[in-house]
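Morning F.,

Quick status update on the modeling queue. The single chain you submitted on Monday has been processed. Sequence for confirmation:
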Amino acid sequence: MENRDGLIKSAIKYGLMIGIVQILLALLLYLMGIEYMTKWWVSILIFVLAIILLVTVGKKIRAENGGFISFGNLFVLMLISFVSSMAVATIFNILLYNVIDTNLAQNIEDVTIENMTSMFEGLGMDDDKIEEAMVGMESISEKFTVAGQAITFMWSIVWGAIISSILAAILKKNPNPFEEEEQ
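Structure tokens below.
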């Protein structure tokens, strides 16, 4: 890497920018209503947006490195961006669920249980089967505590490493060793 410190700063900057986008999306969903925060398609849309943003970050970092970057260097820089964005989002989520709206986690749990029950009833399940399927659903709100957010953050690092490795493998670009360097 030609400018290691500069690229690390860029990776952090891009991660903070992605974190701000995540905060804005969370606020938008919060203002639209809890129902949107529990929709499966919203989660998929946010995941796709995150991949698009990470690909953009990978391309920008590669461009800042003269158009070439190895898999290892790009992986590390993309992971730095990912972890930076998740740190910002986690801090915001801790504030949202534990300071701004302390009832939000319970409300999300209630809406999620209601949605799952309706889905199971629509599939023709009887009450005993629904009750059996709902075991453990009452602990959804625990993932929104500070400890729950910390655990989620740690797992996001694992997933971030997997995603960053896949994207770095796709976006890496090594210089052609057979081209003559200009003098």
